[in-house]
Amino acid sequence: MGQRLKESTINQIPVRNYAYYLQANGWEEVDTDATGSYWNKVGSDPGVYSWLPSNPDVRTFSLRISQLVEEVAKVEGRDVNEVLRDLTDLQRDVQEVRTFPGGKSGSITLGQSSESIQGLHKWVESAAVAVGMDEAAVILPRRKPPAALALLRSTELLTPIPGSFIWRLSLPLGDHELENQFPFDIDGRFEDYARRTTRRLYASTRVTAEAASESLSQDTGVEPFRARITEGITADLCDALSQISVSGATPLEFNFRWSRYRPVPDANEQLALSTEQLEVIGWAGKELRREALEPDVTVKGFVVRLTRTGPNIMPGKITISGSETHDPQGQVAHYWVELSAEDYQKAQDAHSKYEEVTVTGDLRRSTRRRELLNPSQFHVLNGPGTHLAE
Amino acid sequence: MTLSIAQHRGYHSGLQGHFAEQYVRALAGATGFSVGKRDPEPEGIDLAIGYTRRPDLPWGNTTIEVSVKSTHTPLYSSSGEFQYDIKAAHHDVLCGTYGIDFDIRRYLVVVAVPPKRQHFARMEKRRLILSNEAYFLDLMGTTPVGNSATKRRLSFPHANLLTPLTLAEVLFQDAGKALQWVSV
User: Fold this and answer.
1) Is residue A122 over pLDDT 60?
2) Which of A241, A290, A335, B71 has the greatest number of beta carbons closer than 10 A?
3) What interface predicted TM-score (ipTM) does this complex get?
4) Chain A interface includes B60 (CB < 8 A)
């Protein structure tokens, strides 16, 4: 026995979505009347019609919609809630990320969920930041483009659904129907930021899966990942995927459900990552990060070592024991920096007075050490007269 | 177990209402219309009757909804018109405006049935007789009873006797089309 749907549920669904849903799901409008239209699912009993009311101001509108949704679910062999979800999601992109955390369907442990959500945030962030950059980069900059930050703030985590545990993200789309406005927009340059981000998510996740498969099957290590950096692979993306899977503890499946109003015909493949692939992806992310220069990293700490082999007009190398300022809670480590003679002198003074210093540069991580290249803005904190001694 | 008088009346009333619905179903089915219940059911509505598009006729789908009432003590006016005392709430649910209050036209059908269940249906030689008769009424656009009374007496013109032809006329809103349909 069907239940009458809540007014609040129906109010969330734009009226045009009903006809759009029916058209998109193989229904045919057979007749129209002054107050609505008759629809039949192609291939179903030709004598069975569903009624779609046309005017939401008529008092029976919500009742008719309840009847329609009930009938559509029955004809399509689906759950009423699934049909409702599709009706609501028609005007937005939804990314479903399915995890298999064990336990009963629709359930996930608190620890796993917390880890997965952080991974999901990084996953979206990796694409949103990459879209805002002009060139491909292995490590995305710490300073995020404002458009990327705005998008992250407006990205929604929708109600998860069982089977086993499916996260659902929604990136808000502009309300324009792009295809009609820019029919020549073949490569998506005129898409809004959210759609470009979602497309980037799809493409980069797909090539990461390919790289992982290749690395596993041909035992080529990180090279397949490196070769696809221009296609969108970043260390940040690898880290994010690994984290969503709780370090490879669960395989992942990605289902990109594009807004029906702005379909993306060439990106509807379901993507899947096995635990083996995710293990390689996690490892590759760390390797890429080690190899790469991370631009504009500021380190704060104490000078613990000074080395200069020539006279005092020559540059010298120092070691700072400290941490990166964007991550104050991060691990304390030793950073090697080569300073000009002038800055080296300041470093000597700071060392003798046990004062903190900061310096900004491009960070290179290797298995043995962390090195800040192209240093600038070397400052001594708490120094005499000013806290920033140029 | 012996039923009390009240229990017996309730039991009979249920049977009577059920039979009245089947009476309308049989008549609509015999006229070639689809008939059924919608889920969830609109308040005060018992059946949806529809003409389903046929490939050989240029007519579109059409649907009406009916509220089916029954009585085993039919009233008739001095001029012989069938009359029925309808409860205010049952009346008012049918008297809204098409296109504002509801999007599918609504009608009242009252079936006058024999007092005894044994007489609801009778088999004659190659003929099933369903007793006795039904009338329809269009209350759309009429004034609701509201709180002014608990009941309203309705009169049904003789022409509103429910037959295959009158049912087709109600559904199609077109006497010519109805005549053509019942003779197809």
Assistant:
1) yes
2) A241
3) 0.89
4) yes
